[in-house]
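User: Need the bound-state model for NDP:
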Amino acid sequence: MRDVVILGSTGSIGTQALDLVRANPDRFRVVGLTAGGGNPALFEQQVAEFAPAFYGLGEDASIEAAQRPADVVLNGITGAVGLRPTLAALDAGTMLALANKESLIIGGPLVKERAKPGQIVPVDSEHSAIAQSLRGGSPAEVRRLVLTASGGPFRGRTRDDLAQVTPEQALAHPNFAMGRVITTNSATLVNKGLEVIEAHLLFDIPFERIDVVVHPQQMIHSMVEFIDGAVVAQIGLPTMLVPIAMGMAWPERVPNAEAPVDWTRASDWRFEPVDDAAFPAIALAREAGARGLTAPAVYNAANEVCVDAFHEGRLPFPGIVDVIADVVTRHDVPSTQSLTLDDVLAADAWAREAAATRIAAIAAS
Ligand SMILES: NC(=O)C1=CN([C@@H]2O[C@H](COP(=O)(O)OP(=O)(O)OC[C@H]3O[C@@H](n4cnc5c(N)ncnc54)[C@H](OP(=O)(O)O)[C@@H]3O)[C@@H](O)[C@H]2O)C=CC1
Ligand SMILES: CC(=O)[C@@H](O)[C@H](O)COP(=O)(O)O
Ligand SMILES: [Mn+2]
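Assistant: Bound-state model below.
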């Protein structure tokens, strides 16, 4: 039996985690639940159903929940606000099933130095796929990581086409039902940019050995190329049930977490290169990741502000990555070898302010 704390229980990741708990009452027990307060009726219902020892709303409640005795903390919060709960779980010595990629990306070395070997289990589907593909192997055998990308709802469009797209269109992800921020990030390919940084941090592979290939069907969740030329991929239906189940049960697999692929049905799987001219977000993330320290936090914070502005009709879709580029370019990475939480929070705050100023200037022009 695993005692599980679920942060962000009302979201896409959180509700699917609770579905897995419901389906596996002998395997998982919910001991903590937190959410942001945007859906109080659902949260109340979850608390009534799972009767966790601790529950609460907001960042402080999530930090406290992450410090409680448990076997695993699943961080399913969206955005940079997930950083302190991630650090709290790591400091408590609890296994961290990490969906909240932002906390690792913005915390970078700060998060890594707080984590014991194997303490972070990636839940992001691509990174779960890579972790599964690497099991039992030696890091020296790895030549490249290959992240798959859906290409988002605007795959195949030119930069000019993108000027008129609407928030409703951006939220029509081809395969996954996810929260608003990550779905928008999939449309801009910021999600894949963040995931390149996430892969670099999780697996200690240099950026030049992390590739991205567009695979619209998302049946291959990512791959590892080994030094002998062999490629190991993790394949499955495009849902989050296996990655979440693996996150909560690692290193075990949860029987029947998801239906297997039906190989009796004819299907075509396509692969194509990323169109970096129409979607510059990945190249920009590589630059921010290579600069390191506070640069990824700036990339992420500017993006969070831009996503809100796009959905509120204050910024056209291509403006999202334009503003991120402007803010990241103007950011001075501190001249320090190490990173503190204050450095990250200061960079995050600076980037939010800089992005808001730039968005207002664009709107006024
Ligand atoms: N959904 C998916 O399939 C995937 C998601 N991820 C990652 O997982 C994370 C969650 O994504 P997703 O589930 O889609 O997002 P959602 O927007 O669906 O859910 C976010 C959750 O975070 C909660 N939350 C927001 N702010 C706070 C806060 N200050 N304190 C505590 N809880 C808060 C929300 O609560 P409420 O709404 O009740 O206020 C909600 O429960 C993101 O980092 C995303 O990138 C990664 C891979 C796949
Ligand atoms: C399910 C998951 O992990 C998401 O990050 C998803 O992969 C988004 O896919 P794209 O960003 O490739 O559209
Ligand atoms: Mn992903």
